[in-house]
Design goal:
The complex is a heterodimer. Chain A is built from 9 helices and no strands. Chain A is an all-alpha fold. Chain A has a single domain, classed as Orthogonal Bundle (MetI-like fold), CATH 1.10.3720.10. In chain A, α2 runs antiparallel to α3. In chain B, the strands form 2 sheets. A 6-stranded mixed β-sheet of chain B has the order 6-7-8-3-9-10, with helices on both faces. In chain B, strands 2-1-4-5 form a 4-stranded antiparallel β-sheet, with helices on one face. Chain B is of the alpha/beta class. Chain B contains 9 helices and 10 strands. Chain B is globular and about 55 Å long. The longest helix of chain B has 16 residues. Classes of the chains: A mainly alpha, B alpha/beta. Chains A and B meet through α6 and α7 of A and α2, β6 and α3 of B.
Chain lengths: 221, 241
């Protein structure tokens, strides 16, 4: 069928451009995930600190971030910050994505930390370990293992969220697809092509998360 | 070694401990018995400050312990606890469970901690399970690891909160044997238990609690054969098979 041939023809022709864009998408996602985990862990710990002010700060952050669309947050960071000082596109996008992911990751960590049996903290304390030490050595490692399935989920969402960086002119996958698509009056083909690239990336991400999960599950629980 | 004076505690409206007075001397083995809800576990947990008392004094080694002023973490190094549900660290191997606190809290060198852990695991009969994760152990084995883990901190006193209540009957014996050996070595022990056979054989003192109050205390022979209080007699009737 001609349209299949056409599809594969364009797919191979545009390999170079799309792979470059895919790497940018990967970079954006990786950076935003890493910073997002740090942010998420930080605000989760604030929330369980039992200090009212710290809990409120965490609540406010989560509410603001979950309560506004990501695209709005990206624009605010990009246009707002560049009014104050020059922030390169990549970091505006990554930071916005990291802050956004961070709120959801904070709730994931908060849930998994709470899910660790109370007896674990009691055992650590009864051995003379401080609350902080028990948290660090006993609770958090268990909480982190439990967080992997929902975290993997959040990473995939983060990967697709990176497409919004197109709206601040970053040449990631979605931007390249729509630009080339309209230039060639062939939007459909390019959208289908970019869908393939996203599927590839999600498959890769899923594989990595599964491997980490299996390696950490040696202890079975 | 431990003196409890006028200890009282409530959970909201529920008055769980009512004016408890008790003294435990060095090397004593005290078995706390009584029905569920009598306050025995709460009393035990007050002794290592896992529960906060409302009123009264807890005196350990001749010195009154005041949370806030005294370093409770340090006190807990001297008072070991074994839990009904073991509470082993599931993400660590058996030997890692035992060396964790000595290394992290006391700053003992890893090789030394490992050597001591091996000795303790051998003592509880589990030297061949060093590298195993807790999920692969039976309940009796888990509890013996828990005992070794608590002993690794070289406590002066060991508290046991219904150590065999969560075990299948055939696994109870191995844990009680370990506890008996510990008692014979002179460890000061306070044991909340329903195992009357163990209490009769190993305890220096039996303490019967009911409804938050200490009803009677006596040596096993006197307690089981010639109980003084009415409520004690009723309780003993319920424990006979």
């Amino acid at each position: 069928m001609p349209s299949f041939l056409h599809f594969f023809q364009i797919l191979t022709e545009t390999k170079g451009v799309f792979i470059k864009a895919m790497l940018l998408t990967l970079e954006l996602t990786a950076v935003s995930i890493l910073i997002g985990i740090a942010i998420g862990l930080f605000f989760a710990l604030l929330k369980i600190s039992k200090v009212k002010i710290l809990e409120s700060i965490s609540d406010t952050y989560v509410y603001l971030v979950r309560g506004t669309p990501l695209i709005v947050q990206i624009f605010i960071l990009y246009f707002g910050i560049s009014g104050i000082f020059l922030l390169p596109d990549f970091w505006a996008a990554s930071l916005a994505l990291a802050l956004h992911n961070g709120a959801y990751i904070a709730e994931i960590f908060r849930g998994t930390i709470k899910s660790v049996d109370k007896g674990q903290m009691e055992a650590g304390r009864s051995l003379g370990m401080s609350k902080a030490l028990t948290l660090r050595r006993i609770i958090l490692p268990q909480a982190f293992r439990r967080a992997l399935p929902p975290l993997g989920n959040q990473f995939i969402i983060g990967l697709k969220d990176s497409s919004l960086a197109a709206f601040i002119s970053m040449n990631e996958l979605f931007n390249v697809a729509t630009t080339l698509g309209s230039n060639n009056f062939d939007e459909m083909t390019y959208l289908l092509i970019v869908a393939v690239y996203y599927l590839l990336l999600v498959a890769l991400l899923t594989f990595v998360v599964n491997r980490v999960e299996n390696n950490l599950a040696v202890s079975d629980r | 070694m431990i003196k409890i004076e006028n200890l009282s505690k409530s959970f909201g409206d529920l008055h769980v401990l009512k004016n408890i007075n008790m003294t435990v001397f060095e090397s004593d083995v005290v078995c706390l018995v009584g029905a569920s809800g009598s306050g025995k576990s709460t009393l035990l947990r007050c002794l290592n400050f896992l529960e906060k008392k409302d009123r009264g004094k807890i005196i350990i080694g001749g010195k009154e312990i005041i949370p806030g002023t005294d370093n409770i973490n340090e006190i807990r190094q001297r008072v070991g606890m074994v839990f009904q549900h073991f509470n082993l660290f599931p993400h660590k191997t058996v030997i890692e469970n035992v060396i964790e606190a000595p290394i992290m809290v006391k700053g003992i060198a890893k090789e030394q901690a490992i050597a001591e852990a091996k000795r303790l695991l051998q003592k509880v009969g589990l030297e061949d399970k060093e590298e195993v994760y807790p999920s692969k152990l039976s309940g009796g084995q888990k509890q013996r690891v828990a005992i070794a883990r608590a002993l690794a901190m070289e406590p002066e006193i060991m508290l046991f909160d219904e150590p065999t209540s969560a075990l299948d009957p055939e696994l109870v014996g191995e844990v009680l044997t370990t506890m008996k050996e510990l008692a014979e070595e002179g460890m000061t022990m306070i044991v909340v238990t329903h195992e009357m056979g163990f209490a009769r054989e190993v305890a220096d003192w039996i303490v019967y609690m009911n409804d938050g109050m200490l009803i009677e205390r006596g040596e096993p022979e006197q307690f089981f054969n010639h109980p003084k209080e009415e409520r004690t007699k009723e309780f003993l009737k319920t424990t006979e098979l």
